[in-house]
Amino acid sequence: MQVAERQVMAMEWLLILLILLAIAVNIRSFIALNQFQKQRKIMLEDREAVNSSMEEFVANLEQENDELYNRLVEHIAQKESRMEKRIRELELKSDNGIVVESVDKLPVAPKTKTVKQKKMAKPAEPEIDPKLPENEKIEQLHKQGFSPVQIAKVVAAERGEIELIINMYKKKQSYQK
């Protein structure tokens, strides 16, 4: 009987140890979960900080862009006024045969456009018939030289949809040739 009692006692101790081990594992799990929650909170705060700094950066960039645009418009206006003045002086010179001194002082800008400028030149306003179906409107705008992004804004559709319709139109045109 003593052996049986010892075995029962050993089993009881073994069960107690297993219970203590399970409790220790559960405590460790709670500690790990708490640490993960803290890390998640820190990551969310970091994300918010990055988002706000990006928004600030974009706002500054837009402000800088507006300033540059305004400076460019002002520069163009000055150049145009100089050119108008020069044209008037040249017209006076051709009419009267008199040489005007300030004509030689003004620089002459080249009149040729670069390839980039020619590609970027687009019609200012779309000319479409509102009664046309959407596909035909898109084809008509494409023929007028508008980009898919511009067409998407005009017809209020997705850019991918516009590109698909344009590609189908191009294929249709190639089959007709």
List keywords for this structure.
about 180 residues, mainly alpha, 6 helices, elongated
In short, what is this structure?
By secondary structure, this protein is mainly α. The protein has helices spanning 2-96, 101-105, 115-120, 134-143, 148-155, 159-176. The longest helix has 95 residues, at 2-96.
Care to describe what's here?
This protein is mostly helical. It has helices spanning 2-96, 101-105, 115-120, 134-143, 148-155, 159-176. Helix 4 (134-143) packs across helix 6 (159-176) and helix 5 crosses helix 6 (159-176). It is elongated, with a radius of gyration of 38 Å.
Low-confidence stretches: 108-122
Distance between the termini: 106 Å
Total of DSSP H or I helical runs spanning 4+ residues: 6
The number of strands is 0
Quaternary assembly: single chain
Helix and strand sequence: HHHHHH
Topology:
Elements: H1 2-96, H2 101-105, H3 115-120, H4 134-143, H5 148-155, H6 159-176
